[in-house]
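Q: Sequence in, structure out?
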Amino acid sequence: MEEGDRVCVEVRASYVNKNTQVAFQSRIFEILVFEENLISHWDYIGHSEEVISWSI
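A: Exactly. Output:
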C-alpha cells in the first residue's frame, strides 16, 4: 500500500435494541487513510433509522 492510500468501506447492519425491542437499520460509510501500513486517519458518516412494520 502506498503512503496516503485511502480505503472506503460501506457497512449495512440491522439490530434490535434489547431494552426497547425496537428494530433499527444502519448504513455507515467509513474512510481510512494509511501511512506506513498504519491507519493515520479514520472518519465516518452514518445514518440509522427505526424499522417500522406495517400490518394490513
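The chain has one domain: 6-50.
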